[in-house]
Design goal:
It contains 6 helices and 9 strands; from the N terminus they run E-H-E-E-E-H-E-H-E-H-E-E-H-H-E. By secondary structure, it is α/β, with parallel strands linked by helices. The strands form 2 sheets. It has a 7-stranded mixed β-sheet with strand order 5-2-1-6-7-9-8.
Length: 235
């Protein structure tokens, strides 16, 4: 089994909320088993940042401090602690260099940052965003593709969906219990700064709909779906 009590899962998350959207139920499942999970949060803007409202086309400003607190409350809900999070490239002033700009960071720097965590955490599974329309998701997926060269890292690599990836074709599923889905929905409900747009992927009904959809694909009530890039059985 890919996910069990001996799993060491490293989730490479371009932004706060990506890990929870793609793997929140699975993270909660693993924590309940006593497995080890770390989130590598690649970017974060500590200063005020803006987000577009898809319903109105207008931008709303939100506080970086508020979103950081939302992130912490979210991961705590899933069973993670502050020390289970490592930092990638964070912006601490008004000069935004990394947040939604990872495509401008030299690929070798992204690879090195992820390799640092792989060397220290020693994951059995690396989960990264599917390379969707988001440039940061694409950059992280490309970096992990280099990290997974077998002479450096020979474990499993999977990609997770965040929302709206119309060409995502999963081949790996983790069934979720009512408790695990509830934990995921409750965790993401902390992101008040991101609750913009009634059909946005972070809305509770959207999360539940996708969990139902993925569950039905494997004749289950709820599931999270992944694309297995390389699956290694260590048994």
């Amino acid at each position: 089994m890919l996910f069990n009590k001996d799993t060491r899962l490293l989730v490479v998350a371009p932004h706060a909320d990506d890990a929870e959207l793609g793997c929140g139920g699975t993270i909660n499942h693993l924590i309940s088993l006593g497995a080890q999970v770390e989130v590598l949060l690649m970017t974060f803007a500590m200063k005020p940042y803006r987000k577009i409202n898809p319903d109105t086309g207008e931008y709303t400003l939100y506080s970086g401090t508020d979103r950081l607190n939302e992130f912490k409350n979210s991961i705590h809900t899933l069973g993670l602690k502050d020390e289970d999070v490592s930092k990638g490239f964070w912006d601490y002033d008004d000069n935004i260099q990394y947040h939604h700009k990872l495509d401008s960071v030299p690929l070798c720097n992204l690879i090195s940052k992820i390799e640092e965590r792989v060397s220290e955490f020693k994951p059995t599974v690396i989960a990264v965003t599917y390379p969707s329309y988001d440039q940061d998701h694409q950059a992280c997926a490309k970096a992990v593709d280099a990290v997974k060269r077998p002479q450096f890292y020979s474990g499993s690599v999977i990609q997770y969906e965040v929302g709206g990836e119309s060409d995502f074709q999963p081949n790996l599923y983790q069934k979720l219990t009512d408790r695990e889905l509830s934990a995921k929905v409750y965790a993401l409900s902390n992101y008040k700064t991101q609750m913009i747009g009634k059909y946005y992927c972070i809305q509770p009904d959207c999360i539940e709909f996708r969990a139902h959809l993925r569950g039905r694909e494997v004749y289950s009530e709820y599931a999270e779906a992944f694309k297995g890039i390389r699956i290694v059985n260590n048994d």
